[in-house]
Amino acid sequence: MSSPAPENNKLLSDRIRKEWHLVSGLLMLLTLLFSVVRDDGALGKLNNLIYDFTMAAAFTQPAPSDIVIVAIDDYSISQLGFWPWRRIHHAQLLGRLAQARAVGIDLVFQEPNPVYPSDDRALAQAIEQHGRVVLPLIYDTQRQEVNTAIPMLSLAAKAAGYINIEPDSDGVVRRVALQRLTPSDQILPHFTIAMLMTGDDVDLALHALNASQSDTPHIPFLGRSGHFQTVPYFNVLNGDIPPSFFKDKYVLVGAWGSGLGDTFPTPLSKAGLSSMSGVEILANTLQAVRSDNWIRTPPAWFIALASCLPVLLACQVLFYLSPRATLLGLIGLVIAILLVNWVAMHAFDLWIPPLASLMTVLLAYPLWHWRSQEAALNQVTEELNKLQLEYPDVRTALNERLSGLSTRNLPHRLTQLHKSINLLRQAQTKREETLRFISHDMRAPQNSILALTSLQRQDQSKLPPDQFLHKMEGYAEQTLELVDNFISLARAEAMEMVLSPLSLPDLLADCLDDAWASANKRSISLNLNDSDLIWIKGNAPMLRRAFTNLIQNAIKYGPDGNRIDIDLIAEPQTVQVRVMDQGWGVPADKRASIFEPYHRAHENTAGAPSGSGLGLAFVKTVINKHDGDIVLDSTREQGCTFIVSLPRLDSSDED
């Protein structure tokens, strides 16, 4: 039988390679698709979560010493009274900040104070006298209007900039636009740009404006809330802090109190930290503009390329590594993507949304597992179909349903393939045993006949006719016994047993009658210890021959005058037949193989009778096909006991 294994292996490898190309192509397409829609819907929210996690995992950076926040905090409110305060306090505060490089007041004075009109004039004079004060603008996107401070204050201020804080769709502040263009083509610079212009950092401001035209950068928050230098409003106003402290510094005046409502979630808030006040968000933005240190998003093509690279690596892992190593490799790849993303953000100021590559890498394992299993399943199914067509025994075995396994999954098919391979191995073993039987056991008596015939032709070694015929008859009978036993075993292994109700005591009595002549020649007594009528369902000819073999073996391998007893022991579900003798017994090293074909317990013992080694193999095959079992209990030189267990016939079937 020629083996198609190399061709089959090539076919399976071709299928696996084809599936790998398909899976790799699909993964690359998914990566590109996810990278295109990275900011939409759920994908955008997940990318934002990863961004917040990466931002929160940063090392805290030192706050600049020349940016100071004058906080309208709870302590100051408790000292000066309920908010809002009189504007004369702000005018007095500006007097304390005369040496500051620029002062940004994060308070909108949209309405005049009718109760204290002199306060507005005093504040306008203080702003004009200071000369480096920036006031805020608020751009109403719905009405498309720009809300400014009252004209008196606006005219006195050095500059103005819009302070709109625009959170992302999930309410978290991550980015800032450094300028806005109104429908009337009015350009509104950001509040921090106006402060830099006022503080004579014009080049920095212009550079930031030019760089921000291509995208809206992310704010690189230096630390959690309270990271910047912060002094209470009341302490500055009260003179507790000397004016020289603010020399050449950018000063931001804004709300910090818990009840003022000017706080927003930031990426650091996602890490369990508190929200950040609007004035501190302005401080972070001001420092980013001054240092030109923004977290920017690269172009779409760069993001797509960066997302595809780990997916390409994942595809190589799928093809070349084992399932376990593949799983560990993909997990390591996911961790590596997050680490590289962290390094890109904090070392190179780049935010590359990693969700496209993460999702595709996570999908790679189940997708490849599915397609590779399908390819293997189809290949195994085809091979099983071929085996069923070529080998009927394989077809019969594969028709047996395996409990707990679906007929269309890979474990079931592999189990069937394993059974088929075992059957083919058994067939190969049978073939080798048959060849050995033909080449050795069958040839031995034939060679003896030829040798005897050759001797008979020589006058000096010629035997008397009666002796010659007797020896010829013995060799012929030995040949016939070998052939008969071989055919009987082959028939027992191949045939489908036709079972019918039969009386076991009657069957055993017939077996003893068949063996009586052989036993009588050697004065051996045969005893059947009968019991109540016991019925079984079996094939009478096969069982009769099997029990006859056991009795004949007891006769052959025992002394003259031996005693052979057959006991029947009835149990609720089974019946035991014990065949006992006082013969030679079986050596301990031969008991494990005594029921295998061509194995004899006494083949090397002097004076042992001849045999084929097929008798007990036939007995075991027949008993097993009756859903029974046979075991040997033996002690050398003290005889053997063969114990046969067979299922009893139900009482309903007996009727």
Short synopsis of the structure:
The chain has 655 residues and is α/β, with parallel strands linked by helices.
Distance between the termini: 51 Å
The number of distinct structural domains comes to 4
Please state the overall shape, judged from the principal axes of the Cα atoms.
rod-shaped
* Number of beta strands: 18
- Structural class of the secondary structure composition? alpha/beta
Counting DSSP H or I runs of 4 or more residues, the number of helices is 21
Low-confidence stretches: 1-5, 402-406
Share of residues in helices: 40-55%
Mean pLDDT: 80
Give the biggest sheet.
7 strands, mixed
Strand content: 5-15%
Question: Cα-atom Rg, whole angstroms?
Answer: 50 Å
Description:
The protein is an alpha/beta fold. It folds into four domains: 28-55 and 298-362; 62-291, no CATH class; 391-439; 497-654, Histidine kinase-like ATPase, C-terminal domain (Heat Shock Protein 90, 2-Layer Sandwich), CATH 3.30.565. Helices cover 52% and strands 13% of the residues. It has 21 helices and 18 strands. It has helices at residues 5-36, 41-56, 74-80, 87-96, 117-130, 151-156, 191-198, 202-211, 233-237, 278-291, 300-320, 323-348, 355-390, 392-398, 410-441, 443-456, 465-494, 504-521, 540-556, 615-625, 651-654, and strands spanning 67-72, 102-105, 133-140, 145-147, 159-162, 179-181, 187-189, 229-232, 250-255, 263-264, 276-277, 500-503, 525-529, 535-538, 563-570, 574-580, 629-634, 640-647. Strands 1, 2, 3, 4, 5, 8 and 9 form a seven-stranded mixed sheet that branches. A hairpin with a 5-residue loop joins strand 6 (179-181) and strand 7 (187-189). Helix 7 crosses helix 10 and helix 11 (300-320) packs antiparallel against helix 12. The longest helix has 36 residues, at 355-390. The protein is rod-shaped and about 155 Å long. It starts with a helix and ends with a helix. Its EC number is 2.7.13.3. Keywords: Coiled coil, Kinase, Membrane, Transferase, Transmembrane, Transmembrane helix, Two-component regulatory system. This is histidine kinase.
